[in-house]
Structures are given as structure tokens and as C-alpha cells.
């Protein structure tokens, strides 16, 4: 969806780590680059004051650059994962490359060798770009005024995530591992519904109650249960709360299934429309007795119906 990526240090974040789905395949590289820059840090204490400041500043800039790069990789992973997404608001990898080049040049600078340090810095920026690539620079899957619906869905999902966080925090305070796991399963089911809405924000009207009213009610019920259970350890209250989660999870799962069925229906309609267009151009299945007009049409029909072969030819 066109939601904004929030890392653990982004505004409005709860400070937690990134979920596994947002781990970029290059996520470990920044750590090794930071380690490779450690000679600047070590050598700083064996230099005169000016050289020490330069080496420390060089290492600090490189470490900051790698932190920005790691955040940029996570933002890129979130962008790639979603069918509809906005480009990252801040080009973290670009800024990381600039800081890495500046830090490398500053750390390698010597009196009277500014040009050489500048060349090293430019080389560092180029190597950073080759190693980590560029930030996504275009919105994906957003046409015309669709961004309004995307932003609206993003706000509602953020509210839903806040309700989930309160539920998990309230149960976490009880120190009960089994309850923690039960709530985690419920949260996973809810987030699958979030993903459905992210992929198709046009379904927001059908899920508004789930993202708002139902989750808010679940959060309030969880607060009351946690307060009661912490004081009395009432087994009946616990059983009632777990049954409540079971019913609520079934409702969310059913709603996710409805959205998936709707997406499948939309896909089926699009395929049928394309088939009609192909038919008008002369494309028919083999058992239909006619042949398509072009090789491109044959390939498209194979994509739409992999089990039906078609042949290419000219009438």
C-alpha cells in the first residue's frame, strides 16, 4: 500500500525492530562496512589532535551513513513487498552514500592532499551506489486521484496498528507466555486483513468497522481483562477472553477471505475481458478450430490460460 515506511527511529515509531518481511537481502552489508571503517576509530588515538578529530569524524560519518543505508534498505524492502506503494519520503540510501563518501574522504585526508581526499570520497560514493543501489523514486500502483484513498487506508491501518499495540502491551504486562502467544496469533490474523486493504484500498468501506470499531473494542476489552486478571487471576475471565479472541479472529479471517474472493473475481473479469479482445483479433484455443493472427497474441493467451495451448498462424 501507499503507506509510509517507519523504521525504529522514524517519527511516530514505537522503537521496535523491523519485522522479518521488511528485511532486505543486503541488510547485513552496512554492518560490515561499519566494521571495515573501524581502523579510522583505532588510528585516531595515535595521531596528533587535528588528525584524531578527522579520523573520529570520518568514522562517525561512515557509521551514520550505514545506519541511514540500513533504514533505506528496509524502506525499499517494504516498497517491493507491496503491490501499491509510495516512494520513500526521504532518500535514505542517497544520503547514506553522500555521508559515506564524505566520511571516507575526511578520514583519509592529509595536509596538502585535499584533491586526493576528494577523489577517495567520490570513489566511496560510487562504490556505495554500486553496492546498495538507488532508492525507489516513483510511486507504484497509484493512478490519478487514487492516492487519496491510499492515504485514507494508511491512516486507518495506522490506527489499527495502534490498537493492536495496546492489546499486546496490556497482555504483555501479565507475564503470561501462553496469553502472549495467543494474542500474537490474533495480531497475525488482523495484519493479514491489513495487507488485503493495502493491496486494494478500494475495499476500505467494507473493512472500516474492522480496522476501527472492532479493534478499538478489542483493545478496551483487553484492558479490562488484564486489570481483572492481574488482581484476581480469575480462570473464568481468562477462558471468556480467549473465547472472545477466537470469535474475533474468525471474523477477521472471514473478512480477509471475502476480500481475497473479491480480488479473484476482479482478476477473473479482467481475464475474460482480455480473452474477448483476443478473440476479436483472431485468437482462439486449439479446440476452437481457429488460429490466432500473431505470435504476440499467442503468448498472451498462454499467460492467461496456461492449460490451453494455442497456435499461431495467419488466415
From TrEMBL:
The keyword Plastid does not apply. It holds the Pfam family Halogen_Hydrol. Residues 295-304 have a biased composition (Basic and acidic residues). Signal peptide: none annotated. InterPro entries: ChloroindolylP_hydrolase (IPR018770). Keywords: Membrane, Transmembrane, Transmembrane helix. Residues 1-21, 284-315 are annotated as: Disordered. The chain crosses the membrane at residues 52-69, 90-108, 114-132. This is 5-bromo-4-chloroindolyl phosphate hydrolysis family protein. It comes from Paracoccus spongiarum.
